[in-house]
Specification:
242 residues, alpha+beta, paralog of FGE (formylglycine-generating enzyme), three-stranded antiparallel sheet, two-stranded antiparallel ribbon, 7 strands, 21% helix
């Protein structure tokens, strides 16, 4: 399907349905995703710096500990100086609260986990499914840390979205909503969601990269900041198609 017109810097993702990588009590869990727009690349250090100039409450020296741990923007020299020669690299060391605020200010929002995973299923141009999975595993196997690569420098999927893999992990709006049994961390579901027995409900036994991704999300808290965790924004598609 050809990509439709989208707001500047975003790509249109048609809706669809896909199976989560774990079962419910007796059957696979399928999720429906409505059409939406997704940023074609992750938010950069320079873009986040612009946000801080107009939202001083999110500067490193002023943000409340409730909204970010002590490593927040720990790779910046000071409140206004991101890493040298890294203005076009994805911003990292940013909490969920801060990423959410950035997207809201831009008239957008963080993508849901379902939306992010739906976009991530689209193969990069010129790559088959096996090669795609191998490339993801290879990236996951590398040591993490501050990311030197610029946004837009990696692979592009069939809808023009770049670097869903290969540069940084990314926040989603409901990152803590799913255990491996399809239930959330807020007390709903059974005890198998958070221990080894949860693996018995896996539906993609050999898709190690997928389970690494879901497990990483479940390890997070909204105030956490990580050297390899950034974000991009999404938008609903309104009744006029924009």
């Amino acid at each position: 399907m050809a990509a439709l017109a989208a707001p500047q810097g975003m790509a249109f993702m048609p809706g669809g349905e896909f199976a989560l990588p774990f079962r419910g009590d007796t059957a696979e869990v399928r999720m429906r995703v409505a059409p939406f727009y997704l940023d074609t690349r992750a938010v950069t250090q320079a873009e986040y710096g612009s946000f801080l100039r107009t939202h001083p409450g999110y500067r490193r020296s002023r943000i409340k500990r409730l909204f970010a741990d002590k490593a927040y923007l720990g790779n910046w020299k000071d409140d206004a100086t991101p890493p040298v020669r890294a203005l076009n690299s994805p911003v990292t060391h940013v909490s969920w609260y801060a990423a959410k605020a950035y997207c809201s200010e831009a008239g957008k929002r963080l993508p849901t986990t379902a939306e992010w995973e739906w976009a991530a299923q689209t193969l990069p141009k010129g790559m088959d499914s096996a090669g795609f999975k191998d490339s993801i595993l290879s990236w996951y196997a590398r040591p993490t840390g501050d990311v030197p690569g610029g946004t837009g420098s990696g692979s592009e999927n069939g809808y023009g979205i770049r670097d869903l893999f290969g540069l940084v992990w990314e926040w989603t709006s409901d990152f803590d909503a799913f255990g491996f049994t399809g239930f959330n961390q807020r007390g709903v579901g059974d005890s198998g969601a958070f221990c080894g027995s949860g693996s018995t409900r896996a539906t993609k036994d050999a898709d190690y990269a997928t389970y690494m991704r879901w497990a990483f999300r479940l390890s997070l808290r909204p105030d956490y900041t990580v050297s390899s965790l950034g974000f991009r924004c999404a938008r609903h598609r309104d009744e006029k198609g924009f």
